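Tokenised fold entry reproduced for absentees:

. . .
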Amino acid sequence: MTDRMAAPVVGAVRTGYRHRLGLSLTALAMTLVLGIAYLVFGVFELNPADRKIQVQVHFDQSGGILPDRDVTLRGVPVGRVTSVDLTGDGVVAVASIDAQTKIPQGAEVRVAGLSLAGEQYLDFRPSTDDGPYLADGAVISTSDTSTPVPLSDLMHNLDGMLAQIDPAEVQVIVEELGVSPEAPEKLSDIIDGGTFLISTLDSVLPQTVSVLNTSKVVLNTLAEGSPGMQTTSANLSGLLQGVESMDQGFRTFVDNVPGTLGAVDSIIADNSPTMVQLLGNLATVSQMAYVRVPALQEFFFPTERDGSTLEAIGSAFRDGGIWAYVNLYPRYTCDYNLPRRPPSVPDFPEPYLYTYCDNQDPSVLIRGAQNAPRPPGEEDEAVIPPGVDPARTADPTPIGPLSIPLTYGGPPAEYIHPR
């Protein structure tokens, strides 16, 4: 079989070796085609089958947006700005957007920047994903658009901020920074970090405002639950101390685990020949117990009769003693019509399977076997099945390599098991 499977592979390798020049040229051609396709479709993003829609976006002022800049949807590129023209009361930018992109009408449009240095782009920020959506030729008015703060307003606000700075405090900061030779680098790191923080917060301004409002609620809740948290901390400290005190016991437990697992492994290995039959018997027992849950429920917690087994057992143990009732008169019993074996013969027979009472008198059924609730479909199984041998016994007990031989009279008194 191995030769038949390897023959096609060997033949293919030999054929490829004979035509290695042609295969090399084919591989080079495929590489060239793939490279051109990557440049056209991946780098230059040219797609002949791609369909675009044109959307006019009106602004009060340009905000620095220029043609051929990105158009994004929540920061994800979906098109390009094709033109920016003046109007009577502002500017209009024409955005070419992928027709497969669904942008809800009424979405906020703003001119955003990748950094403080510029690199503006057109960003759509819809508040919902539900329609209707923008179509080809749609017009967005200035009420739904926004642009960055103009430089004149920025300088005016900066002048107001500088007017609030105390020169004496600035002098103290300068003196503190001059203590160490690394002060210029530290100041540069502080400015760079502040610039990065401000630019990041500006790009996620609505989310930042939402976080601040939510944080206020969270901090108020934490302040109200401070006593409970202190109690929890104290309880947790006591718990961890208890865990620490049991560290040695845990280490002892971990050290004993390999030996215990080894003993379990030995038990499984010793009983492996009969394990399958044992598991099958356990599955049968589990299934029989599951379908007879109503009978067990009636036995311990009866609903169709007075009293229960647990109450009967509990009534026997009371007043500091064990109480029992003895009836001196013999009771009417049932003859099961099965061969009787003398109890003095030590031959270890298997038990009978069908020990049913032929007498239907309820007083004879001491255990109430015929009256116990049964699973659906087994209501008539309280009698011996038709056509079976009434004297049939259970299957012989499975014999494994570690089983003790039960010969007539039992095993020898000094029996040594082979290992």
Remarks:
- The mean pLDDT is 78.
- The first helix runs from residue 2 to 18.
- Residues 57 and 418 are 94 Å apart (CA to CA).
